[in-house]
Amino acid sequence: MFFLSSNVSVFAETHVSGDIKSAALDSTGNPYIVDQDVVVPAGKKLTIREGCVFLFKGFTGININGQLNVAGSSKHPVVFTSVNDGDFNPKSDQLPNPFDWNGILVAKESGGALFDNIQLRYSVYGIKSQSTNVSIQNGIFRQNGQFHFTVNEKIQYVQDNIPYSYSGAAGEPEKGVSKDLKTAADKTPEAKKTKTSNNTLVFRYTSLGVGIVGIAAGSIMLIPWNNAKKELALSDSVFAAKYHGQEDDKWKEFARNLNGFGAGSIISYTLGLAGLVGFGISFAF
């Protein structure tokens, strides 16, 4: 017997392996312990109803040669996870880890698969679909070893613990996903944390760039400023001998350089310092 924290109920466990004979599985069989690979045979359709929990032993998974319809709900998602996952198997004496079980394989010749409101954790490859006829609505993926979701060997961009949807009919992520679902996903703590982290990185490296450019520009402008300062420090006789017939023009030129490059150097150094300070502050966010 297992106590399922997600449903706060006690059910008799059901061991499954090989070809699935049932047309549908529901939560009364929870948790489903997968001892060996589960197979949905060609020509068969399996429906997994809301609240079902599958606990996979090592080197096991689900192979879809027929059709699969996973019909979870927002309150009672369907869970695919490691037998070591203490959230759903309190009797486990091991911590769950990525690569604990294989994942879900949708074969190229399958009739397709629909995953609605699922959680998939601690597998090797998550959902690997060799068919484009696959759809996900509100899927939550967590700590899968290689990747969360692939279609025809193409890795899809899926983030841990953030609701993800994909429409196989169009072959594009989130095609046809409701605005409410997208809004809800954006409001999750994980999504907010990710956005904050991205904004911090933009600020950090922008500040670093400003700091480097500012210090470099200020240093470069010190060269003509220093030259002008040296020339204006010459005695009148030496200056006149060096620039005979051009004294006024050269004096004005060096005066402009002294003032202009001096001010430019100060501004550049100030910006550079501000950038470096911002770069340092970003690590406190």
Report on this model:
With 285 residues, the chain is α/β, with parallel strands linked by helices. The protein folds into 2 domains: 2-186; 194-284. The chain has 4 helices and 18 strands. The protein has helices at 179-186, 189-232, 236-242, 247-281; strands at residues 2-4, 9-11, 14-19, 24-25, 32-40, 45-49, 53-56, 61-64, 67-71, 78-82, 103-106, 112-121, 127-129, 134-142, 149-151, 154-155, 164-167, 172-173. The strands form 2 sheets. The chain has a 16-stranded mixed sheet that branches. A two-stranded antiparallel ribbon has the order 1-2. The longest helix has 44 residues, at 189-232. The radius of gyration is 32 Å and the shape is rod-shaped. The relative contact order is 0.08. Residues 1-11 and 170-185 have low confidence and may be disordered.
Tell me the layout of helices and strands.
Blueprint: E1 2-4, E2 9-11, E3 14-19, E4 24-25, E5 32-40, E6 45-49, E7 53-56, E8 61-64, E9 67-71, E10 78-82, E11 103-106, E12 112-121, E13 127-129, E14 134-142, E15 149-151, E16 154-155, E17 164-167, E18 172-173, H1 179-186, H2 189-232, H3 236-242, H4 247-281
Parallel strand pairs: 3-5, 4-6, 5-7, 5-8, 6-9, 7-10, 8-11, 9-12, 10-12, 11-13, 12-14, 13-15
Antiparallel strand pairs: 1-2, 14-17, 15-16, 17-18
For the structure shown, list the relevant keywords.
rod-shaped; 285 residues; two-stranded antiparallel sheet
Report the biggest beta sheet as strand number plus sense, adding barrel if it closes.
16 strands, mixed
Q: Helical segment tally?
A: 4
Order of helices and strands: EEEEEEEEEEEEEEEEEEHHHH
Helix content: 25-40%
- What is the percentage of strand-forming residues? 25-35%
Q: What structural class is derived from the secondary structure elements? A: alpha/beta
Q: Count the E strands.
A: 18
